[in-house]
């Protein structure tokens, strides 16, 4: 344990009482001025600690930041987040960081988290506006033993895990929009960007990138999505602890990922279908440079959309942006 971690243990154990600098210095076997320096650094990390020349230090509140040690505390996973959690106050994109780590050989379960992204990426070449404070921006490295053509299943699996995390912690009516947007009352609260690296006929690694608008106020949303996006704060009127949601997401993701490896994709797909409520609906799908409209017959075992147009032609759609047109 680092000196800072040890200090936190003793301060938290103080449970609302003052802990003297002398006691801390003695326990950790450092000088009192070293204690002071480390406390200053903890305050910089967002921990609220009072200092008094006479009484020492009083732990008031844990940090609001998504610090690696705080994420780990109480995290009930076996693999995800159990190894390295790479934390950034600011980075270009957690997916880019995670790719770099994966290329360097980082194991499955490695997590990257940032408070702010300067080049957050969305699906289909879009940007993901990532201001500090309200959002979760995280990427997880997986190394699944599956062929590359099964990778889309992991995106659906992730959307189910993210929806479950929100459903288990809030009373919000959370839905999935194919393939992997998370909506509340028709507005997007979270998005997923999955990127894969293949080696011959197998997957080298998958980066699961997730962005969630948690405590983002309306004015904190980028103007171009202000009408189509929402946040947990906007829906509930309450600030929600981001770290609790992040932990729950990692836990649900591990549950579904393990289930996928041991029991296959069918149970996950049926949960996805329930949460997506898209089958039988008339939709419009914007493809890269074309548009389709039709009725959704099914989402097949690979996670592709089966669409039937008015003439009865059936098409299998791999990727696109869906707009609901109403039910037939
Ligand atoms: C979408 O377009 O809906 C996907 C958005 C994915 C955003 C997340 S934020 C963390 C990770 N890093 C990125 O650059 N993108 C993903």
Protein architecture, described:
Helix 2 (21-28) packs across helix 3 (32-44) and helix 6 crosses helix 8 (242-263). It is built from 9 helices and 14 strands. It is elongated and about 85 Å long. It is an alpha+beta fold and 328 residues long. The chain has a 7-stranded mixed β-sheet, sandwiched between helices. A 5-stranded antiparallel β-sheet has the order 13-12-11-10-14, with no helix packed on it. It has a two-stranded antiparallel ribbon with strand order 1-2. The longest helix has 22 residues, at 242-263. The chain binds biotin.
Q: Concise description?
A:
The chain is an alpha+beta fold and about 325 residues long. About 30% of the residues lie in helices and about 25% in strands. Biotin binds near residues 95, 120, 123, 128 and 191.
Main features:
328 residues; alpha+beta; 14 strands; elongated; binds biotin
List the helices and strands and how they pair.
Layout: H1 3-13, H2 21-28, H3 32-44, E1 48-52, E2 56-61, H4 68-72, E3 85-88, H5 94-103, E4 111-114, E5 135-142, H6 151-169, E6 174-177, E7 181-184, E8 187-199, E9 202-213, H7 232-236, H8 242-263, H9 266-276, E10 281-286, E11 291-299, E12 305-308, E13 314-317, E14 321-327
Parallel strand pairs: 3-4
Antiparallel strand pairs: 1-2, 4-5, 5-9, 6-7, 7-8, 8-9, 10-11, 10-14, 11-12, 12-13
Helix pairs in contact: 1-3, 2-3, 6-8, 6-9
């Amino acid at each position: 344990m680092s000196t800072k971690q040890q200090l936190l243990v003793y301060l938290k154990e103080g449970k609302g009482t003052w802990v003297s600098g002398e006691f801390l210095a003695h326990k950790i076997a450092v000088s009192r001025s070293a204690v002071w320096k480390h406390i200053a650094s903890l305050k910089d990390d967002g921990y609220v600690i009072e200092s008094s020349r006479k009484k020492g230090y009083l732990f008031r509140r844990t940090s609001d930041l998504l610090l690696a040690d705080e994420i780990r505390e109480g995290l009930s996973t076996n693999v995800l987040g159990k190894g390295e959690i790479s934390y950034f106050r600011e980075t270009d994109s957690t997916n880019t960081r995670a790719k770099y780590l994966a290329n360097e050989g980082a194991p499955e379960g490695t997590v990257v988290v940032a408070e702010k992204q300067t080049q957050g990426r969305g699906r289909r070449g879009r940007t993901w506006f990532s201001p500090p404070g309200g959002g979760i921006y995280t990427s997880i490295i997986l190394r699944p033993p599956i062929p590359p053509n099964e990778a889309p299943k992991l995106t659906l699996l992730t959307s189910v895990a993210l929806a479950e995390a929100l459903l288990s912690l809030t009373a919000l009516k959370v839905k999935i929009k194919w393939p992997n947007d998370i909506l509340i009352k028709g507005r997007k609260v979270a998005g997923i960007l999955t990127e894969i690296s293949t080696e011959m006929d197998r997957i080298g690694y998958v980066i699961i990138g997730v962005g969630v608008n948690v405590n983002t106020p309306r004015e904190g949303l980028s103007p171009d999505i202000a009408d189509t996006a929402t946040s947990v704060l906007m829906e509930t009127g309450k600030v929600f602890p981001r770290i609790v949601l992040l932990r729950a997401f990692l836990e649900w993701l591990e549950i579904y990922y393990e289930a996928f490896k041991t029991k296959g994709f069918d149970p996950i797909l049926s949960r996805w279908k329930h949460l997506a409520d898209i089958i039988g609906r008339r939709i419009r799908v914007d493809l890269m440079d074309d548009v389709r409209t039709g009725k959704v017959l099914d989402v097949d075992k690979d996670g592709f959309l089966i669409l039937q147009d008015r003439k009865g032609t059936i098409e299998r759609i791999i990727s696109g942006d869906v707009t609901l047109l109403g039910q037939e």
